[in-house]
Amino acid sequence: MFKIAYFSPLPPQHTGIADYSAELLPYLAEEAELTLFVSDPEAVADELRNCFPTYRLSEFPHVRWDYDMTLYHMGNSLFHRDIYAMLKQYPGLIVLHDYTLYHFIACITAGEGNFPAYVRELTYAKGHDGMRRAYAIQRGESATPLFDWPLNERVVDLSVGVLVHSNYVRQRLLAAHPKALIRKVNQPIRLPSSRDQRTARRELRLPDDAFIVVTWGQVIQEKRLDLVLQAFALFHQRHPDTLWIVVGESLTEHAHWEEMVQKSGLSNDIQQVGYVEGLEALYDYIAASDVCINLRHPTAGETSASALRTMAMGRPVIVSDVGWYAELPDDCCARIAHDGSEVEQLSAILERWYGQEETRLTIGRQARLYIARECNPTCIAREYISFMEDILLSKE
Amino acid sequence: MNKDLIAELETRRMIHEQPFHSDKPIIGPLIARFRAAWNSISTRWYVLPMLQQQNEFNVLLVSCLRQMEAAVEERLSEMDERLIDLDRDQTSLTRNVAELTYQLVRMNRLLVAVEAQSQGRDTDVHEA
What we know:
The structure holds two protein chains of two kinds.
Chain A lengths: L1 E6 L8 H13 L3 E7 L7 H4 L4 E3 L3 H4 L5 E6 L6 H9 L3 E4 L5 H7 L6 H24 L14 H6 L2 E4 L2 H10 L5 E3 L12 H8 L6 E6 L8 H14 L3 E6 L8 H9 L5 E5 L4 H10 L2 E4 L10 H8 L4 E4 L13 E3 L5 H13 L2 H18 L2 H16 L4
Parallel strand pairs in A: 1-2, 1-4, 2-3, 4-5, 5-6, 6-7, 8-9, 8-11, 9-10, 11-12, 12-13
Helix pairs in contact in A: 1-16, 9-12, 10-11, 10-14, 13-15
Chain B lengths: L2 H9 L16 H15 L1 H84 L1
C-alpha cells in the first residue's frame, strides 16, 4: 500500500480546502496509508486526529524517507503558508486549488515587509519584466497584477506532478509549462442525503411560502454580491414574497457589504447568517432554498465547492460563465456572462425560475446526477493514486 | 548609482560668465558697467580660458559618469540575469532531488520485497 505524507489545511480551519481534505481523506485512506502533517496537531478536529496519525510539520524532514509520495494542497490563502515553506524544501505532488497564487505570495513576502522576497518571486515568474514591475509597484507607479500574473510558476516548477480540478487551469498551466505533469481530477463531493425543502425551512425557522434565494461561502468581493443585491432588488420589487439568505463569514476586506445592504433598504428581506459550523448545517440552508447563486468574477481559477454542494443537494444554481464554472454542463445550472449586463441577466433568470418550479426541479435533479457521476470520492481517490503511480513509473 | 545626481551634474556642467550687477539705486548700472569694463581689462583674458578648461573637464566628467553608469547597469543586469537563472536552476534541482528521492524509496521497497522473496526461496530449498 502506498504511504503518503499529506499536507493540507484541515478542519476546523475556515477554508474550503480544509473541508475538501476532510471529505477526501477517508476515501484516500482506502487506497493508501496516510500521515497528516500540520503546523499544530492539537488544533486538528478530533474526528481526523483519531483516524490518522497526525504530526507536526517540522517532523517531516526526519521521516520523509518513509513515504512514497508527499501530497501538498496549495491554494491562494494564508492557510498554506507553512505548507508552501515545506514544499519549497521537499517538493512532491501538488494539488493546485487556485490557478492564481498572487494574493498568497504577496502576503507572505511584501505583506510581511519582506519586499526583496516579493521582487524575487515576481522576477522568478516574469524575469526582468517582473523585477521592473515589482519596483514600479513599490514606487506606486504600477497597479498590482492581482489576477494577471498568477505567480504559480515556482510551485509548478517544484512539483513532481500537479493535480488540478478544471481543464481551464490545466490548459493554462500546460501553455506555460509544457513539460509539467498535470492531470485534471474532479473535486470529490460526497452526495448528501436528500432533504425535504419544507422540513429544512421548518428547522431553520424560514417561511414556508417564500421564494428563497441563497448565496453561501465567504463574503468576498469576487463573489459579486453587489450584483446579486441589485438583481435581487429588482426581483423583489416584482415579487415581495422573496427572501435572500447570505450564508458565510464576511471578511474584513469586504466590510462595505453591510453598508450596501443598509443602503438598499432591503435589510428585512435579506437574512445574513454568517459563518455556519459544519456541512450538515450548510446543506440545510441549501435544501431550504429555491435557487442558489454562486458568482465569481474575476476568477482565480478556483473550483467552487459551494456550487458543487448546491448541485449535490439538487438545487438549481446560477454561476458565472468563467473558468471552471464554464465547464459545468448546461443542463445542471444557469450561467451569466460578466459583460456589464449581469444584473439584467440575473434578474431575468430569477424571474424565469420563479414561475417554473418544474424547471428548477429538473435542473436540480440533473445537477445531483452529475455530482453522483463525476465527483464520486472513491473514484477520485483512485485517480489520485493512479496519478502517483504514473509519476513514479514515469508513465506520463 | 544615483541617476538624479548625474542628471543634475549634466545640467550644471557648463559654467557661464555672469553679467555684473549692482542693486545700488541710480548709480547701480554705472557701477556694473564700470566693473565689466575693469574686468575686461584686468581678469577676463585670464579667467575665460580657465572657464573653458573647467567646462571641458566637467563635460568629460559627466560623460565618464554616464559611461560608468551604463557599465554598472549592464553588470547589474547581467548579475540579475544570473541570479534569475540560479534561482530557476535551484528550483529545478530541488525538484529533481525530490523526484530521485521518490524513486529511491520505491527502489528500496522493491529491493526489500525481492530480498524477502529470495529468503523465502532459500528457506524452501533448505527445507527440501
